[in-house]
Every structure is written in C-alpha cells, then in structure tokens.
Design brief:
Blueprint: H1 16-20, H2 24-30, E1 43-48, E2 54-56, H3 58-71, E3 76-80, H4 88-104, E4 113-119, H5 124-128, E5 137-139, E6 158-164, E7 166-167, E8 171-172, E9 177-180, E10 184-188, E11 197-205, H6 208-221, E12 256-257, E13 270-271, E14 279-286, H7 307-317, E15 322-326, H8 333-344, E16 348-353, H9 359-366, H10 370-388, E17 408-413, E18 422-423, E19 427-430, E20 434-438, H11 444-448, E21 452-458, H12 460-473, E22 482-484
Parallel strand pairs: 3-4, 4-6, 11-18, 15-16, 16-17
Antiparallel strand pairs: 1-11, 1-14, 2-11, 3-9, 5-6, 7-8, 9-10, 10-11, 12-13, 14-21, 15-19, 17-22, 19-20, 20-21
Helix pairs in contact: 3-4, 7-8, 8-10
Length: 496
Amino acid sequence: MTNLHNGQEEGPPRAAWLDRLTTPRSVKENKAHFWGKDPSCLITNSDVAAEQLTTGNGADIYETTILPALESAEEEIILVTCFWARSVSLERLSATLLRISSNARFRRDGSKLRVRLCFSSRSFSQKLFHTSSPAGKTYPPSRWQSLGLPTPEAIQNLDLEVKSLFFLPFSVMHPKFVIIDRKRALLPSCNVSRESWFECCLPVSGPVVATLLDFWREIWGRNDLPSLEVGDSGQDSYPTTLVSAPNSPNGRNGTASTKPTDSSTTSSPVLIAHPSTPLTTALLPSPHHRHPRFRPLIHPSSPPPTPLNTYLIDLFSTARHYIRLLTPNLTSPPVLHALQSALTRGINVSIITNRRLMVLEQLLTAGTTTEVCIWKLRRRWKKMLSSRGPSTFSASIEEGRHPNPGVLHVGYFKPEEKRYQRSHVKCTIVDGEVVVLGSGNMDRASWYTSQEVGVAVEGRDAVREIWGMIERELGGEKMEKVEWLRFKGFGATRSS
C-alpha cells in the first residue's frame, strides 16, 4: 500500500501520488492553490475516533452529531454544505442558532460568536442566475428568513454571514464539512436537505483541521479569517465532562463534552475523540472546473489532476488484495478503467451503489447512467474470465502471481420506505489499510466539474471500525440491505 508520508532522506519513500502532482500538467492545474508549491502540505495527522462514526439519515446526523457540536462552539462555527433546502435539518439548524444566540449574550467580553454558513445549490433559478464571481453571493440579513433562517433580531448575538458559490454550467461546490473553533471538524456525507438517505459523519481533530481551514479560507473565507483566542492549540479551553450522547442512531453511547456558560446552563452534548494515537491523514481537495470536457465519440479525456483524483487513481493502481467502494453513483470513466485494470491484476472489487438515483443529472453530466456503466464493467469482467478459462484458475499462489481476474461483486442498495430511500455514503477502502471519506462520488461530475474534498486515513484499526459501522447499517455481514448481482462462472466463488 502506498505510504502517505512525504519522505525525507531518513524516512519512508515519497508517495507516488505526490510525485504525480509535480508533473507539468499537474503543476499547471494546482499552482493557484495553497498546496500548489508544496503538495506534501496536504499530508498531516489526525485524531480520528472511528468508533464514533455516526450513521443515519440527514436529519439523524444533524440532530445527534452536527447540531450538538455547533452548540459547543466557543468562538467560531463554519458550516459548509452543497444543497440547501427546506427540511427538518434546516428547521433544527435554525432552532439551534436561536439557542446559541441566546447563550452568547452571556459572553464576558460582549463579543459575538462568528457563524459562517456556506452552500452552493438551492434551486434551479438560483443556479441559473448566480453570479460567476469567485467571491460568490453574500445574503443580506433581510434575506435570511427566505433561506429558512431566523430573523436578524432573533440572533443578534451572532456574527452571521451566509454565502453561496456556483459556476455555470455544472460547477457545484459539493463539499460538506463543519469546523468548530478551528480545532475540531465533522465530515458528514449529508446536505441540509429533505432526502431520507443513508448517510454517515466522521469527527476528526488534530492538525488536519488546520489544513481543512486553509481549504475553506481559499474558497470561502478569503479576507474573512481573524485570529481567535480559544485556548491552547489542539486543546479545549473548557472542562470536559463524560456523559452519554443522546439519541444515537446507532444505539451507542459515546464520550461527550459539555461547556458551562455564564448563565449556569449547559450546552447539548457533543461527541469528541477519545485519546488515541494520531493517524496519518491526507486532505484531498478537488477544485471545480467549468469546462466539462465532454468527448462522447472518442476516448474520454483525462480527469483534472487534482489531489483527490490523483490520490484515488494511485490507490486503485497499487491495491494488492481488494477494493471496496460505496458510492451513490458510478459513471466516472477513469474510475471504471481503474477498476477494470485492478480486476485484470487479480484484485477483488466490491461495489455498492444505487439504481435510478438522479438519472437526469447523470445523463446531463456524464451522458450515461450508473446501471449502464455497471453492465459494461461486468460484461468486460465476464470476457476476462472466459478468455482465461477454468484451467488457469488453479494457478499456484506460491508463485506470488495473480494470473486470474479478481472477483467483481456488485450490489444495489435496497430502498426502505420508512428509513433510507437511497445510499448517499461515499466510502473507499483498499486492502483494509486506508479509507477515503468525503464529498466525492465516483461519478463523472465529481471527477470533472464539481468541487470536492476528501480525507484519506491510514490505519487498519480505524478502517475496520469505520467499515464495521457502515456494514452494520447495511444489514451486517450478510448485507441484507444490498441486492447483490449474481454471476455463475469461473472464479465466482472467490471472496475479498
């Protein structure tokens, strides 16, 4: 497995994906960004409480994880989402801002708590007439109510700014993350929207939060990032109390932190990371691109060499045992090619995705659909098996070769009327050694036009914990909430 570390003379070798970011094409692509001169700045550490990954629908994630985190803030809240819509999540967010403002009036120094709300897509007309300025659109207080937020008078103790960014034709800002006091972050897969989809959220802290803040500052913050006084670096400046996290959608208890206020009230509990060994982590941005680079009649164009795209291609090409993908859609030509190449090398591939999810968007941004791409990938795999024949499947493993194609398992998420209509989790695991979570789908839009951000975490224990939480929500080891496609042929009984 590729090591994430930026190698020094006495340390581990430099990661191949970092080397690929130094090619002329990659330098041209990334030079305007904060990582352009030194891509290794994206490599850092994080404290990841993998056992505190939360799952549920969007409303669950906001109620049990995100909103309590907002209420724990001392100085600053940054919330970035893609879609913004009237929903239970938005109603609860607005109610939380009212409580935060009420508590903020007891601040000793009389200062206001900074809140920055950032989104990209609200409606078709909003995107059609959106400004193309990189500064985006800042909504005046008189417009807050139209966004489903409280009136300015009701939250006058907050220094609130609401901003949107979108670039025609398809360049949506797709990331979703929350930063609290520049020390803790949450990485949810859900938007502020009404869909009841299967989602997850990972809490992180440590140096990776500073890199995530650099990403926010470049895209959204610009000149809006004053210094904060929030205690010692990396440490909470208020006592930590251990209590049970309420209403966990997983039925688990967690460590929570409560912050006393001058009004003798207590904020809602918020999950924090247990003390643990920092894990090597890479922040993986992928800037937006307005040119969709459609080439429907000839070989697909190469994807922009962003850190996220480059890292994933390197991860797929260096897999030794298996690749596991959980993605809302799968229409990205580079991903499909990489998976086919991995199967040729004998790497087992497992894919869980959706049927008929946002079909019109798929046709507009990719010219195809997930079901068609899956059908083509399986057809190519069957040809691999047929060309090898049964005799080669008994090749000796002792030779260290994989002459046989890997096994391809494809499953479609089973919609549940009462809970999950679709799966919206974006999770990539390779060899049980590294997991990539974030906003990026394995579709053409995420790889060519949308802005994305991902986080890659190394560590077998963390990967096992994270996948265990997701697997449990999918129906356990038998994956009862997944409809697996069947194929009877050579090697079909191999497993990853």
